Amino acid sequence: MKKAFKFAAGFTTAPQRSLLRGFTLIEMIITIFIFSVIALGMIILISNMVTNSSRQSRLLAGSDQARKTAFQITNELRNATSGATGAYSLGITEAQQLLFYSNVDQAADIERVRYYTQNAKLYRGIVKPTGTPPVYNTGSEVSSVVIEDLANGTNPIFYYYNDTYDGTFDNYLTQPVSIPQVRYIKSNLQIYLTGGIANSQTYTVTSSAAIRNLKTNLGN
Predict the structure, then answer these.
(1) What keywords are annotated for this sequence in UniProt (predicted)?
(2) Is the pLDDT of residue 197 over 90?
(3) Which residues contact 16 (CB under 8 A, 6 or more apart)?
(4) Residue among 188, 109, 97, 174 nearest 143 (CA)
(5) What is the CB neighbour count within 10 angstroms for residue 13?
């Protein structure tokens, strides 16, 4: 007669214990895998959020600077006048370079103001008159970057119009522009949305002004 073996509660045979240990190992591997996938997903998500936030910050900063620059150009152009030397209000009227005379700091002097491009940046150069009689020493021009990541490329930044412009048709003067004909100037500033990356989308700020010292039938 065979004897029946009884096992105390909570104990298993060796094969059963191995089986349970195997299931536990598989469960641990699956848990680690799932956790790794979730962690990787969170890292990617956070990275994308930081990148997008950085790009958005650059865009906001760039667009804000473009708007400020456009506003500045407009105000300075409206108040353009003859230079301290008696020079005509406008000196250069090119597609990507504009030179004129205006009081930009509320001091007594009339400054020589120049906007020009270089290496995908827009610069503003200022020359104050010196001496008696006054002269503008171009070697003393103080330039500063007013727009980073300029996206105009070879496209015009400045458009010039004569006294027939009524705001309805974009009948700007073709280059080379006859300076005495100019009464109205429009600026078209484009910046890259992604911090200077070529071929990316652009943000455009347009402003315009009639030169009060020269205007005839044009508004402000």
Answers:
(1) Membrane, Transmembrane, Transmembrane helix
(2) no
(3) none
(4) 97
(5) 10
Where do the domains of the chain lie? Answer: 54-79+91-98+146-210
* Gap between the Cα atoms of 124 and 155, Å rounded: 19
Which tokens hold the place of 27?
């469960």
Write the CA distances from 77 to 105, 172, 209, integer angstroms. 13, 17, 7
Give the tens place of pLDDT for each residue, 77-110. Answer: 999 999 999 999 999 999 999 999 999 987 889 9
